[in-house]
Amino acid sequence: MRVVIQRVTQASVTVEKEIVGQINQGLLVLLGIETEDSLEDVDWLLNKTLNLRIFNDENGVMNKSLLETEGELLVISQFTLMAATKKGNRPSYIRAAKHEQAIPLFEAFCQKAEARMGKNVAKGIFGADMKVALLNDGPVTIQIDSKNKE
Known about the structure:
By secondary structure, the chain is an alpha/beta fold. The protein has three helices and eight strands. The longest helix is centred in the last third of the chain and has 19 residues, at about 100-115.
Protein backbone atom coordinates (compact mmCIF):
# COMPACT_ATOMS: atom_id res chain seq x y z
CA MET A 1 0.00 0.00 0.00
CA ARG A 2 1.34 3.39 -0.97
CA VAL A 3 0.35 6.92 -0.19
CA VAL A 4 1.35 10.29 -1.46
CA ILE A 5 0.56 12.77 1.29
CA GLN A 6 0.23 16.46 0.54
CA ARG A 7 -0.16 19.12 3.21
CA VAL A 8 -2.83 21.47 1.89
CA THR A 9 -4.65 24.66 2.80
CA GLN A 10 -7.56 23.39 0.70
CA ALA A 11 -8.38 20.48 -1.59
CA SER A 12 -11.40 19.09 -3.40
CA VAL A 13 -12.38 16.22 -5.64
CA THR A 14 -14.96 16.52 -8.40
CA VAL A 15 -16.79 13.74 -10.25
CA GLU A 16 -18.95 14.61 -13.26
CA LYS A 17 -18.75 18.35 -12.44
CA GLU A 18 -19.96 17.81 -8.86
CA ILE A 19 -17.73 18.28 -5.80
CA VAL A 20 -17.94 15.01 -3.87
CA GLY A 21 -15.33 15.82 -1.22
CA GLN A 22 -13.50 18.88 0.01
CA ILE A 23 -11.37 20.03 2.91
CA ASN A 24 -9.62 23.08 4.23
CA GLN A 25 -6.34 22.87 6.22
CA GLY A 26 -5.17 19.26 6.41
CA LEU A 27 -3.91 16.40 4.30
CA LEU A 28 -4.76 15.16 0.84
CA VAL A 29 -3.89 11.46 0.68
CA LEU A 30 -3.60 9.62 -2.63
CA LEU A 31 -3.93 5.93 -1.74
CA GLY A 32 -2.71 3.06 -3.93
CA ILE A 33 -3.56 -0.53 -3.02
CA GLU A 34 -1.73 -3.60 -4.33
CA THR A 35 -2.62 -7.28 -4.39
CA GLU A 36 -0.38 -8.08 -1.41
CA ASP A 37 -2.05 -5.56 0.92
CA SER A 38 -4.09 -6.39 4.02
CA LEU A 39 -5.65 -4.69 7.04
CA GLU A 40 -2.21 -4.76 8.64
CA ASP A 41 -1.01 -2.41 5.88
CA VAL A 42 -4.05 -0.18 6.45
CA ASP A 43 -3.35 0.08 10.18
CA TRP A 44 0.37 0.76 9.79
CA LEU A 45 -0.06 3.33 7.03
CA LEU A 46 -2.97 5.11 8.71
CA ASN A 47 -1.02 5.40 11.96
CA LYS A 48 1.95 6.83 10.07
CA THR A 49 -0.24 9.26 8.12
CA LEU A 50 -2.18 10.63 11.10
CA ASN A 51 0.93 11.01 13.29
CA LEU A 52 3.34 12.37 10.68
CA ARG A 53 4.72 15.61 12.15
CA ILE A 54 4.53 17.89 9.11
CA PHE A 55 2.50 20.82 10.43
CA ASN A 56 4.18 23.88 11.89
CA ASP A 57 4.24 24.50 15.62
CA GLU A 58 4.21 27.97 17.21
CA ASN A 59 7.90 28.38 16.25
CA GLY A 60 7.33 27.59 12.57
CA VAL A 61 8.94 24.15 12.87
CA MET A 62 7.25 21.09 11.36
CA ASN A 63 6.54 19.41 14.67
CA LYS A 64 2.78 18.73 14.79
CA SER A 65 0.64 15.95 13.34
CA LEU A 66 -2.76 16.06 11.69
CA LEU A 67 -4.27 14.78 14.94
CA GLU A 68 -2.60 17.54 16.96
CA THR A 69 -3.70 20.30 14.58
CA GLU A 70 -7.21 18.82 14.25
CA GLY A 71 -6.88 19.22 10.49
CA GLU A 72 -9.05 17.60 7.85
CA LEU A 73 -8.40 14.60 5.62
CA LEU A 74 -9.29 13.93 1.98
CA VAL A 75 -8.54 10.42 0.71
CA ILE A 76 -8.46 9.59 -3.01
CA SER A 77 -8.00 6.07 -4.38
CA GLN A 78 -5.30 6.02 -7.05
CA PHE A 79 -4.33 2.70 -8.62
CA THR A 80 -1.69 4.43 -10.76
CA LEU A 81 0.53 4.70 -7.65
CA MET A 82 1.16 0.98 -8.14
CA ALA A 83 2.56 1.50 -11.66
CA ALA A 84 5.59 -0.54 -12.67
CA THR A 85 7.75 1.37 -15.14
CA LYS A 86 10.83 -0.84 -15.37
CA LYS A 87 10.09 -2.20 -18.87
CA GLY A 88 9.27 0.04 -21.78
CA ASN A 89 7.37 3.30 -21.63
CA ARG A 90 3.86 2.06 -20.91
CA PRO A 91 3.23 1.63 -17.18
CA SER A 92 1.99 -1.75 -16.00
CA TYR A 93 -0.67 -1.87 -13.31
CA ILE A 94 -0.54 -5.62 -12.71
CA ARG A 95 0.34 -5.09 -9.03
CA ALA A 96 -2.73 -2.92 -8.39
CA ALA A 97 -5.44 -4.72 -6.43
CA LYS A 98 -8.71 -5.51 -8.18
CA HIS A 99 -11.90 -3.75 -7.05
CA GLU A 100 -13.12 -6.63 -4.89
CA GLN A 101 -9.96 -6.44 -2.77
CA ALA A 102 -9.17 -2.74 -3.02
CA ILE A 103 -12.58 -1.27 -2.15
CA PRO A 104 -12.83 -2.90 1.31
CA LEU A 105 -9.25 -1.79 2.14
CA PHE A 106 -9.93 1.77 0.91
CA GLU A 107 -13.13 1.90 2.98
CA ALA A 108 -11.31 0.46 6.02
CA PHE A 109 -8.64 3.18 5.74
CA CYS A 110 -11.32 5.90 5.65
CA GLN A 111 -13.47 4.41 8.44
CA LYS A 112 -10.51 3.87 10.75
CA ALA A 113 -9.34 7.43 10.05
CA GLU A 114 -12.78 8.78 10.99
CA ALA A 115 -12.74 6.77 14.23
CA ARG A 116 -9.25 8.01 15.17
CA MET A 117 -9.93 11.63 14.19
CA GLY A 118 -13.46 11.84 15.57
CA LYS A 119 -14.73 13.54 12.42
CA ASN A 120 -15.78 12.78 8.87
CA VAL A 121 -13.16 12.05 6.25
CA ALA A 122 -13.75 13.47 2.78
CA LYS A 123 -13.10 11.03 -0.05
CA GLY A 124 -13.32 10.51 -3.73
CA ILE A 125 -15.43 7.87 -5.44
CA PHE A 126 -13.54 4.64 -5.97
CA GLY A 127 -12.98 3.92 -9.67
CA ALA A 128 -14.50 7.19 -10.87
CA ASP A 129 -12.86 9.66 -13.23
CA MET A 130 -11.95 12.28 -10.62
CA LYS A 131 -10.61 15.80 -10.90
CA VAL A 132 -8.53 16.76 -7.87
CA ALA A 133 -7.78 20.39 -7.04
CA LEU A 134 -5.43 21.41 -4.25
CA LEU A 135 -3.38 24.20 -2.82
CA ASN A 136 -0.22 22.48 -1.56
CA ASP A 137 1.02 24.18 1.61
CA GLY A 138 4.80 24.50 1.70
CA PRO A 139 4.90 22.61 -0.61
CA VAL A 140 5.02 19.52 1.57
CA THR A 141 4.64 16.19 -0.25
CA ILE A 142 5.67 12.83 1.24
CA GLN A 143 5.50 9.27 -0.10
CA ILE A 144 5.16 6.24 2.17
CA ASP A 145 5.03 2.56 1.20
CA SER A 146 3.88 -0.03 3.73
CA LYS A 147 6.13 -2.65 2.10
CA ASN A 148 9.22 -0.43 2.35
CA LYS A 149 9.12 0.93 5.90
CA GLU A 150 11.89 3.51 5.72
